[in-house]
Specification:
Blueprint (H helix, E strand, L loop, with lengths): L17 H4 L1 H23 L8 H38 L6 H34 L11 H34 L6 H47 L12 H39 L1 H22 L14 H41 L5 H28 L4 H8 L5 H14 L2 H18 L1 H12 L2 H23 L5 H43 L12 H44 L5 H15 L1 H17 L2 H21 L1
Helix pairs in contact: 2-5, 2-8, 3-4, 3-7, 3-18, 4-5, 4-6, 4-7, 4-15, 5-6, 5-7, 5-8, 5-15, 6-7, 6-17, 6-18, 6-19, 7-8, 7-14, 7-15, 7-16, 7-18, 8-9, 8-14, 8-15, 9-10, 9-16, 10-13, 10-14, 10-16, 11-12, 13-14, 13-16, 14-16, 15-16, 16-20, 17-18, 17-19, 17-20, 19-20
Length: 646
């Protein structure tokens, strides 16, 4: 039994106690919240010139209304689901009321993060369109102004996620902590707080599934009928599914991603504290708090660095236009890279301060933990660059797929599948190397610290992901509105191309950090059920691994079938409306497509979501913790590869 204070590791500059341990979370979370509010006020202060752009704002209002309608329907289901799960946790023997409270608190904050992100995105899309307007007719659009508005809107959501996770965990820790208890009892408190991440995970699961079904169904339906069958341009106002397509960008890529990374971010901090409290005492709790808090500050600085001096020029022949577009994209990508790299370097430097505050700079563990943080930061950035290389239209993987179009769609599909599968190799190698380094330096605690380090710059990396749908919407609004200049669409197209690449980069971060967080939580689970060593060839472990490996494929198959079903409904509706327009002269009703997507996606998300949550519970109850451990391990291994390909 360890001493509750574990004074051997309490050599830092702070007199570690409950309040000092959570100090980093209060500091980082509070500053993130303040800056998010400042950014939101700045966006609200921009001129919304409805008098001169009435059609443009009507389009933006329709997108915002559709997004709100979807989240309203989705959250009604999530409220009932969360209440039931919370009461189930209360009824389980030996847990008490704390896991229930933690679960509900995490679910509420996760849902709020997604709603804030969606609201800001749908408010800022039209502002981005107007910001890209040229100062004078015939001039190029203002690329930097559009970039700043779109990125600032993404930063509001990103910093909201960071602040709500940090402050939420700190509140629960301060409320539940009892420093007079033994290390094992204090660890049980963190196991109760782990339900906070479970609550966020539940919301993220359904938000991702429901939002993903919505956005892909609307996208497929709009493109197949509008672009393929009717030869309409992208985001054409003559396509009744265009509004639904733009709504989908927000509910899937903004609200879903916000809830998703909230869970990963909170889970990494909780995993680190759970594994650290018994081994390192107060220092093991305080360090992830302070590391994440300093990461929040570094992210805030990073969000201020994203800007460009480039102009979008659309003159000359096709080749010169392509070269100019490539130069603009590379300039924008460098701006994003500079912000992320600068934030990462700041985190690395501030991590030494965090170590000084908690462990002390002269402690034998400090250098090991510093190298673990360095490993996590390098791993995160390496995954980001590898994902960017695999998805950017200026680099060879994407170019090789495009070149196959000369021989038809079959070779494009074959090349795309092959390149997609190969693209999983670098991120997996980086994660494996990070795990090996972290374990060799600081054991399983190092895996959790590595995940916290990777996600420490979430405030800027999530912003690079969240601004993409805003730029996409801005381009859609520019295409549908007759009130904006043609140069505006060219400018928003450049931002959209950047958003498509950075979205993939953000998903790479999400996948890599999710693997490390899941492995850390898996170790915490094994320790909690006294599975210190497990034989992989055990009678129930190996079948559990095989079953777990199948779960991501079942989950993916169900969601793909749901997308197909919803897309069919959209296609039938689009065909019907276009036929009525051509032969009877009736007006298009985009709201019907929005309603179809909302109804179908909310209905179809239930089975995959419930299956993902209750299969592990059933396995654990009916067979036992060994098979459950194998199932979780198999799901993690299979899931990371499938996620990388898709």
């Amino acid at each position: 039994m360890v001493n509750p204070q574990n004074e051997e590791f309490d050599d830092g500059w702070l007199d570690l106690n409950r309040d000092a341990n959570a100090g980093g979370a209060w500091m980082g979370g509070g500053l993130a919240l303040i800056v998010a509010i400042i950014y939101a006020i700045q966006l609200c202060s921009l001129d919304r010139d409805r008098e001169h752009f009435p059609q443009t704002f009507r389009i933006a209002d329709a997108i915002a209304a559709g997004a709100r309608a979807f989240l309203y329907r989705e959250y009604i289901f999530l409220v009932g689901f969360s209440v039931v799960i919370g009461l189930v946790l209360l009824g389980l023997p030996g847990l008490g009321w704390r896991p229930m409270v933690s679960y509900w608190f995490g679910a509420i904050l996760s849902a709020a993060s997604g709603y804030i992100g969606m609201t800001v995105a749908t408010y800022s899309n039209v502002l981005t369109t107007l910001a890209c307007e040229p100062n004078e007719p015939g001039q190029a659009g203002d690329l930097n102004a559009g970039l700043r508005v779109a990125f600032k809107s993404g930063a509001v959501m990103a910093l909201s996620v960071v602040s709500s996770a940090l402050i939420g965990i700190a509140i629960l820790y301060v409320a539940f902590e009892d420093e007079d208890k033994s290390g094992q009892d204090r660890k049980e408190i963190w196991e109760h707080i782990a339900a906070f991440a479970f609550g966020g995970s539940s919301v993220a699961l359904f938000a991702r599934v429901g939002g993903g079904i919505y956005t892909k169904a609307a996208d497929v339906g709009a493109d197949l009928v509008g672009k393929v069958e009717e030869d309409l341009p992208e985001d054409s106002p003559d396509n009744p599914a265009t509004i639904a397509d733009n709504v989908g960008d927000n509910v899937g890529d903004v609200a879903g991603m916000g809830a998703d990374l909230f869970e990963s971010y909170a889970g990494s901090i909780i995993a680190a504290a759970t594994l650290g409290v018994e081994r390192f005492g107060n220092a093991g709790i305080a360090f992830p708090f302070w590391l994440a808090g300093f990461g929040s500050i570094a992210s805030i600085i990073g969000t201020m660095l994203v800007r460009t001096a480039r102009k979008v020029e659309k003159q000359g022949d096709k080749k010169s236009k392509l070269e100019a577009g490539t130069q603009v994209l590379n300039s924008l990508l460098w701006s994003i890279r500079f912000a992320i790299i600068t934030s990462s370097l700041l985190v690395l430097g501030l991590s030494w301060v965090a170590l000084g505050l908690t462990f002390g700079v002269n402690h034998k563990e400090s250098w090991r933990l510093f190298l673990t943080v360095l490993t996590g930061i390098i791993c995160g950035n390496a995954i980001g660059f590898a994902t960017e290389y695999a998805t950017s239209y200026t680099d060879s993987p994407t170019v090789s797929i495009a070149e196959k179009s000369y021989t038809g769609p079959a070779t494009v599909i074959i090349q795309g599948l092959g390149v997609g599968m190969l693209s999983t190799v670098p991120p997996v190698l980086f994660v494996v190397i990070a795990i090996l380094c972290a374990v060799s330096l600081t054991g399983v605690y190092g895996i959790a610290v590595c995940a916290v380090a990777m996600l420490s710059t979430l405030g800027v990396t999530l912003a690079t992901d969240a601004f993409g749908p805003v730029a996409d919407n801005a381009g859609g609004i520019a295409e549908m509105s007759e009130e904006v200049d043609d140069a505006t669409r060219d400018t928003t197209d450049s931002l959209d191309a950047l958003g498509n690449t950075t979205a993939a980069t953000g998903k790479g971060f999400a996948i890599g950090s999710a693997v490390l967080t899941a492995l850390a939580l898996l170790n915490a689970f094994a320790d909690a059920v006294n599975l210190n060593s497990v034989n992989i060839l055990d009678d129930v472990v190996l079948p559990g691994i095989v079953l777990g490996a199948a779960l991501p494929f079942v989950f993916a198959a169900l969601t793909m079938l749901s997308v197909g079903s919803a897309a069919e409904a959209i296609m039938y509706e689009c065909r019907s409306q276009l036929n009525d327009k051509y032969f009877r002269g009736t007006e298009l009703d985009s709201q019907k497509c929005v309603d179809i997507c909302t109804t179908e996606s909310v209905k179809e998300m239930v089975i995959p979501g419930v299956l993902s949550i209750f299969v592990p519970v059933v396995v654990g109850i009916m067979v036992g913790p060994k098979m459950l451990l194998g199932l979780l391990a198999g799901a993690i291994l299979s899931g990371v590869l499938l996620a990388g390909v898709m």
